[in-house]
Every structure is written in structure tokens, then in C-alpha cells.
Amino acid sequence: MTDHTVPPIGMRMIKTAAAVLICLLVSMAVDREDMRIYSSIAALLCVQPYAEDTKRMAIQRIVGTAIGSVFGIATLLLEMALDIQGTLVGYIVIAAVTVPNLWIAVVLSVAAGQLSECVSGKWFLNNKSEAIGVGTGGIIGMNESQKDLSKLVNGAFVGRQIGSGDTNRFAGGIIGNQNNAASSDWLIEKCINYGTIYCYNSHYSGGIMGQWTGTGGTIQNCRNYGNLQTTFAANWVGASGGIVAQLYHANENNEYNIASSGQDIRLRFLRCLPSAVQNSHSRFHHSCRPLRRLP
Question: Which residue(s) pair with 241 in the sheet?
């Protein structure tokens, strides 16, 4: 049966209406009728459910408008200098300038995906893909965003299953693979795993992360209460870790922080060769100098 319940008026609608009213009042105060439409549209686009998201959208609008203004002025001056305003050549120039304009906006932007206060229930999640490097997580399979993550809770069984024993397959209670290549300033905090993390014929089950790749960052005040198990090991490769199962291809001079109410650990990798650097069963690959505990 179709649900015809009328949705209630939410706070976002009220905030958006208030923002539009403020734009209209400012336009009236400065006697700029032309501002009314554009400022109201900007308010409609920028207001989000949460203050942080609204701030992010507003900054993106400001940066985008500034970039567009610079290219617009430059294009206008070029048209005037070449006397091609209103001609076919002028229109082609305007269209061509759009490409670098959008490209610069993309280059200046950062990965903006962000999660907070999310919970996965007591269900069964099992990834049977044979592909190498595929992340499986209770909340996020693969995270490439540099935004902070907080208050994520997993209660699901998270499995990584392949047909025959092989390496570089992993599963994590919160994140399967953390793979941010842009910045080491990210933070994941106040996350808890209650689910069982089980790797069948594969490596690396982590309570919070299955695999941490590339740049450093900080894991803070995270807890694992779930069971961890792997069923495949080749020599010393293969591990289960309460917080992180595998630290892989660590970048030089990046810090990898695991902080909690107990003992805090700060690790910095120095002079690592291009080959893999793995933290497995508390041993480190010979291609990297010993880790140094920082004060």
C-alpha cells in the first residue's frame, strides 16, 4: 500500500526560508534589486541540514564564484582586445575558457565525503569478490576522502571470502581500506566495532580498519569488541589486528597515530623503499628502517 503521509515541515526548510529573507532584506537595505534573485538562489543551494555542511557549501560557492569572475573578466578583456564580442569566434572563445575554469575548480576541491553518527545493524555482510585490493567494511568499503569520520558503530558480521588462499584481501569493522592520497590530516574517532570480522582464505581482519594505505592520519578513541579471524597465512604475512590489521605502502615522513585513553602511539616511517611496508604480527618488512616512537 502506498504511504500518502504528508511530511512535516523540517528545520532545514525553516532555516532556508530565514536565509532567503535575510538576503532579501540585505538587498533592500543596500538598494540593489539585482541582488535579490542571485543571493536567494545562493541561499537555497548553500543551506544544508548541518552547520558544517552549510559552511562547506558556502566556501565552495565563494571559491567557485571567485574563479569564474577571474575567467569572466579575462575573457571579456580578450574579446574587447580582439574585437570579437558577439561574433561566432567570441562564442567559441567563451566555450573554450569554460574548460580550464572547471578544471581549476576541480583541482582546488578536495574529497568531501563524510560520515558521522552512523550505525550498521546485526546483519550478515560477505564479499566474495576475487579481485585484489577490494575493501570490505561494516560502514565503508573503501574510504578516499580526507574528511574526518566520527561516531561510527558496526554490529554486522563482516566477511571477506575467496575461493582459494591468496594475499592482499582484507576486511574491517568500520573501514575495509583507508586510502587517502591527498592529506595526512584526517581523523577517525569515537568508532566502535562489535561485529565479527572474518577472512576466509584471505588475509587481514581489523577491528577498525582492514588495510591502511598511503598517507598517515590519526585513529583516536576507537574500540573493538568483536571477534577477529583469518584463515590464510603465507610465511609471516597475514594478521588480525584489534585496530588495524595491515599498514601498507606507508609514505615517507608521514605520521600514523593511534591514540586512546591508554598508551598513545605515534609512528613515523623513514627512508622506505618502494616495495611494500607491512605491519603484521608486530613485524616490519626489511625494506624500511625500524619505526621510531615519537615523543
Answer: 206
